[in-house]
Amino acid sequence: MLFRLCFSGTKKIITSTRKIGPSFFSNFYLLLYFVILFEPFVLLSCPLSMFPFTKPCRILLFLFLLHALQAIPSIIPLNGKCRDKCGSVPIKFPFGSDSGCGHPDFARYIKCSFGTLQFSTGTGIYAVSSIDYSSNTIVITDPLMSTCSSMQNSGSFTLERKSPFTLLPDNIFVLLGCSTTSPVFDRNTDFCDTGSGLNVCRGLYSCRSVEGIGLEPNGAISTCCVYDPPSALGPGYGLDLPKLQCSSYSAVNGFGGDEGDPMKWQYGISLQYNNSYYSNACKNCEDSGGFCGFSGLDESFACICQNGMNTTINCYGRGYAWSGTWRHKIQTKVWMGGFLLLWTMLFL
């Protein structure tokens, strides 16, 4: 109804604006859509006696169309960008900083969140403290894992069977505050290292922080176990503390040159990742200044350029897509076309 009354002169308007070009009419019909959508509200504020095209009605329509015009630029899609660093940790393929970056098999485990590179499993979220791309290894730290400077009750740790990560053999898992009835002390299972592992237990139990798990410093180490299961700690490995009846755990991946001083030890879980995902297509993308990523429901390969544009090959000779200069030009054209329509409505 409003469309018929307030736009009884539509034919005249269109006739007077044919010289503008086809881009004008795409904006014109989009704006008319907003007017028709808000017709009931306009009718309540603009009586029939004011039609057709009286000045108050024009002003009211102007406000509606101005609101619609402001919403137009926000519907233009923009592609995301990938970053080469998360906090202080450099990021290279197969890892990625954001959604669609890196390889999809790693994207579910590694992501950058508020400047911290995170590793996720079914048992928690862990910070990635370092990545060594030459040896294909990463080191993750559990915020609840015990160290010589801080001990508290820990959660469990599980490495999913299908993940592209495996535990390195130089990891030393130490179970702390275990019950005397814990299955790790079963003589028939031989889960604990009773050789050099005892020195690791003595070192950790000499720390004052053991008070955090209800123990006295330099106390008996009978509740400590350097976990050494007979099976390899590969994908699917799980450290279930409630099942093992232990209060906490620590992971040592190096002694810092001094095995007698647990304050100098290097704490964290070392993982090795599968680096067989690198391809010639990814190398070609990186050589052109792009980031290797993926897109679509099938998570197919995509080369993500620094301006946010996605390609299937490389970034050589690629423009600005919907970002940067072209986005600004599109917004300018939309505003010019919209204001020309409003001027025509108010003064013709």
TrEMBL record:
Any one of the GO CC terms: membrane
Protein topology in the membrane: Single-pass membrane protein
Residues in Wall-associated receptor kinase C-terminal domain copies: 268-308
Compartment(s): Membrane
One Pfam family in the UniProt entry: WAK_assoc
Domain of life: Eukaryota
InterPro entries per the UniProt record, alphabetical: WAK_assoc_C (IPR032872), WAK_GUB (IPR025287)
GO MF annotation list: polysaccharide binding; protein serine/threonine kinase activity
Domain Wall-associated receptor kinase galacturonan-binding residue range list: 82-142
Protein name listed in UniProt: non-specific serine/threonine protein kinase
Record key words, sorted: Glycoprotein, Kinase, Membrane, Receptor, Signal, Transferase, Transmembrane, Transmembrane helix
Catalytic reaction equation(s): L-threonyl-[protein] + ATP = O-phospho-L-threonyl-[protein] + ADP + H(+); L-seryl-[protein] + ATP = O-phospho-L-seryl-[protein] + ADP + H(+)
Keyword flag Transcription: no
Spans traversing the lipid bilayer: 28-47
Organism encoding this protein: Olea europaea subsp. europaea
Keyword Kinase: yes
Main enzyme class: transferase
EC number, as in UniProt: 2.7.11.1
Coiled coil: none
